Amino acid sequence: DVVMTQSPLSLTVTPGQPASISCRSSQSLVHRDGNTYLNWFHQRPGQSPRRLIYEVSNRDSGVPDRFSGSGAGTDFTLKISRVEPEDVGVYYCVQRTYWPRAFGQGTKVEI
Amino acid sequence: EVQLVESGGGLVKPGGSLRLSCAASGFSFSNSWMNWVRQAPGKGLECVGRIASRAHGGTTDYAAPVKGRFTISRDDSKDTLYLQMNSLKTEDTAVYYCARDVLDFWGQGTLVTVSS
After folding, report:
1. Which residues of B touch A101 (CB under 8 A)?
2. Is the CB of residue A48 less than 8 Å away from at least one CB of chain B?
3. What is the secondary structure of chain A as a DSSP string?
4. How would you write the pLDDT of chain A (111 residues) with one tens digit per residue?
């Protein structure tokens, strides 16, 4: 099974400053159809996860453009250009290229 | 508006059974592959299983920890997804979410507690 490894696992940020989360997979996430199915999610306490980014770098509707995703193969990054107070919570990467889906351990972001 | 509403969670003893439901609306449920994902208290997200659309055979896949104990099914006439959980263990305690296979929409989750 694919293993997803996030770093750091915890991040304290200052509002207005950038933040970056890394996600590494144990094997390439390039699907035979040519797409790379790597998503990023944000989960606030007591809420369901919300998808932010799909297929590495595509922002979901309503997601602020301060969030961006990049990467290829086995190494991926979520960047927040200027952290806002509402960005606190846990961020997860997940791969959908293979079954079973594999989530990263989560990165807790605090202000 | 897409909505997924889970129900059926509760307290059950080890070895017991429970069936969760997920009522879908706002999208073509019958054409959608669906997933169950769970989250143990204070822990991360873990996939449980998925079911293909009828057009793709309605086949199911399960994560290793639940294979042979959990069964996913669907009733497209009711736009409802199910998770039958048997032989429950304390480590199955979690909030269970249903989500479309592309993981774009999730329900609010239902808590399952397995304890004596």
Report:
1. 35, 37, 47, 103
2. yes
3. ---EEEE-SEEE--TTS-EEEEEEESS--B-TTS-B-EEEEEE-TTS--EEEEETTTEEPTT--TTEEEEEETTEEEEEESS--GGG-EEEEEEE-SSSSPEE---EEEE-
4. 999 999 999 999 999 999 999 999 999 999 999 999 999 999 999 999 999 999 999 999 999 999 999 999 999 999 999 999 999 999 999 999 999 999 999 999 999
